[in-house]
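Annex B.
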Amino acid sequence: MMRMIPNGPKAAPYAPVTRSDQAAGENVIAIDRFRNRRSLSPLRQAEAYWTALCGETGVPRRSQVDPRGLSNILQNTFILERVAPRVARFRLAGALLEDLAGMDVRGIPFTALFSDAARVEAGSLLERVFSAPHVAELRLTQAGSPGRSAGEGRMLLLPLATDDGEIARALGVLVADGGCGRLPCRFDITDRILRPVTADPQDHAPTPPAPTVAPEPQGFAEPRADFGAASHLRLVK
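PAS domain-containing protein: predicted structure tokens.
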């Protein structure tokens, strides 16, 4: 497992953001634990790993993320790819996401995890993560209904940059309490916290080198193309 860098960039304190982005002075939203005290350590571990990778830009590159650094929470982890404003799709996802969705989520929209009433807000939060950028932490709930169990969840979205510098990826972590029954989960967003990503070169350690990737990566690592000795290039859509 990749070691954490203890003297990484300083994280700005969380500040609450209401649905209407009202003026400051509101009480901090307490989303540090489930009602039944279940641990949210996967979220904290992922953010510590992400923070350790931050360089002067304040946003790590997708190529820096090594699944070995998140090996014990891979089932909770996913990677999003931005495809349009307010729209992202799952590029990779752990077993928990597939269990909640009842299917392989790769390629499906991020908003598919949410109820119809929450999808507009989910898209708006995506845009804040990618364009500002922000770190987003969400409290999720699902009311019980025939074929679908009541449940609660927490989600963390951490922006990532491509090798070209575009913020078009996100590292996500989901912790859910309880199953979904016969039907796929569809969450509502009950609370959210948005924290802007700031870049202060004096507060950031140098960007760590990209980790060495094993020839056959495991976990949620994406397969790498082997170009071999091809005599021509192909355009893959």
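The CA atoms of residues 146 and 172 lie 29 Å apart. Residues 41-53 form the longest helix (13 residues). Further annotation is deferred to the next reporting cycle.
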